[in-house]
Design goal:
- The protein has 19 helices and 16 strands.
- By secondary structure, it is α/β, with parallel strands linked by helices.
- Helix 1 links the parallel strand 1 and strand 2.
- Helix 2 packs parallel to helix 3 and helix 17 crosses helix 18.
- The protein binds adenosine-5'-triphosphate and magnesium ion.
């Protein structure tokens, strides 16, 4: 950035002095904005753009120190040079403590002024470069993601550049790698962020309800359609439609989705009028979509329509030390929820977390940290507190569904009709409860927090109950 593109904001209430300073600075190719009061200065700083600020400490409406304090409080990207009267060096020292970059004691030479301002501009320029580098290379947080590994930085960059387009994004990745987090990041990073993000899980909705779920239905179009109902496509108008587990979509719906993508229009179930919406489609799967195409389960033409911007989420084991950053984040969160005092992991526990292969990825890591927070107490998580197979031999095992999630079946199982009860078929209450919980976890693909939310109990309750059933040999 050439000198001169960072402006100098001159705050000096003596017009003759202001004129002289401005002249020297303009000769050195700086752009100068001159104001006389603290209030005017704050107005100029409102845009948040980087500026070198030349600040006289004695202003008519406020003490210059107050301007400095506000700049620091709002973390404005400014380098402040304080101008003090001869003999008030103490004030200058105090100003430096408040974050001023340098000070000039009146009277000062033109050279001294020009060199001090040049240095301040250079410092701001470097700070901006570091900031941009940091944003581009070292983002440790990005929307719902935690992680600064190179593999995740690449994901953040694709989301950045894909967000503004309307092109369909196809997210792949093992279970628990954050595909839903990614879909939301795309939406929130886009200009559609203020409009709805509507997610539909193609694997969780019974086949015969799916069309109505996406496209809506008219009253009376099928048994149970007691009123007109908007589908996800209509609700997502202006925003983003997230089709999760897209490979589970039945063949006839694949055809309807293809037509919708080609024309941008659809007809609700039982309707006759074509509806038009403006939405962006993001879809995800933990299967290998090309294999689904090759084996005839997924339409090739639909695959190519959807697979415009591919994003692959790397498994957790390929994300360097992200494991520790994520583990620490969830340790703080779950310890607070469970009223426990954990603040850190021991070096041995960290080493184990780092080297484990995490087949269930981030969700499994969440589950491990949750179990520790539920079952133990202290300020440091020791190796023996980690559940098996991570911890010491004999440690409490992580429930298997939390570890390796079974691959999702080709279609959702048909809902079971409850058989009429006879005295012989009455089950003990604990078993009814256990079945309800286990069924919910299976329906949520092993996602215990989601199952807990749907059952309206806390995830810790599920963990506690499962551990108790395990201890009693009931699981
Ligand atoms: N990088 C990350 N940092 C912090 N939390 C994450 C990260 N990635 C995922 N999570 C969390 O892990 C859990 C699983 O993420 P998500 O549901 O997005 O995974 P998924 O790939 O969609 O899994 P599935 O294939 O089972 O549907 C969520 O609770 C999510 O908030
Ligand atoms: Mg998911």
């Amino acid at each position: 950035m050439p000198v001169g593109s960072i402006p100098v904001l001159l705050i000096e209430d003596t017009p003759s002095l202001a004129r002289v300073y401005a002249e020297f600075l303009k000769k050195d190719s700086h752009t100068v904005i001159a104001v006389e009061t603290g209030a005017e200065a704050m107005e100029q700083l409102k845009d948040g753009a980087p500026k070198v600020v030349l600040l006289d400490l004695q202003l008519p409406d406020m003490n210059g120190m107050e301007v400095l304090r506000r700049i620091a409080a709002q973390a404005l990207p400014c380098a402040v040079i304080v101008i003090t009267a001869h003999g008030s060096v103490n004030a200058a020292v105090e100003a430096m403590r408040y974050g001023a970059y340098d000070f000039l004691v009146k009277p000062f030479s033109a050279d001294r002024l020009v060199i001090t301002v040049r240095n301040a501009v250079e410092r701001l320029r470097l700070a901006q470069i570091v900031d941009t580098f940091g944003k581009e290379l070292g983002r440790g947080r990005y929307h719902g993601f935690i992680g600064s590994s190179l593999t995740m930085q690449a994901v953040y960059r694709i989301v950045d550049s894909a967000a503004s387009s309307r092109a369909t994004v196809f997210i792949t990745g093992e279970s628990g790698t954050g595909k839903e987090v990614c879909a939301e990041a795309i939406h929130r990073q886009s200009q559609r962020a203020a409009k709805p993000f509507v997610a539909i899980n193609c694997g969780a909705i019974p086949k015969d309800l799916m069309e109505s779920e996406i496209f809506g239905h008219m009253k009376g179009s099928f048994t149970g359609a007691v009123a007109d109902r908007e589908g996800a496509a209509a609700r997502a108008d202006g925003g983003t439609l997230f089709l999760d587990e897209i490979c589970e979509l039945a063949p006839d719906l694949q055809t309807k989705l293809l037509r919708f993508i080609q024309t941008g229009t659809y007809t609700p179930v039982g309707g006759s009028k074509l509806e038009k919406v403006d939405l962006r489609i993001v879809c995800a799967t933990n299967r290998d979509p090309l294999r689904e195409v090759e084996e005839g389960r997924f339409r090739e033409d639909l695959y190519y329509r959807l697979h415009v911007i591919p994003i692959h989420l790397p498994p957790l084991r390929e994300r360097e030390d992200d494991v520790l950053d994520i583990a620490r984040h969830y340790l703080a969160e779950f310890a607070a929820e469970e009223h426990k005092g954990f603040t850190q992991f021991s070096p041995e526990a960290e080493q184990t977390l780092r080297h484990y292969h995490w087949p269930g990825n981030v969700r499994q890591l969440q589950n491990v940290v949750r179990i520790v927070a539920v079952l133990h107490d202290g300020d440091t998580v020791r190796l023996d507190m980690l559940p098996a197979p991570l911890g010491l031999p004999g440690a409490v095992p992580v429930p298997p569904t939390a570890l390796a999630l079974p691959p999702p079946g080709p279609a959702a199982p048909a809902p079971r009709l409850p058989a009429p009860l006879t005295p012989e078929t009455i089950k003990p209450l604990w078993e009814v409860e256990k079945d309800a919980i286990e069924d919910a976890i299976t329906a949520c693909d092993g996602n215990i927090p989601r199952a807990a939310a749907l059952l309206q109990i806390s995830a810790s309750t599920i963990y506690r109950k499962r551990l108790a059933w395990q201890a009693e040999g009931k699981l």
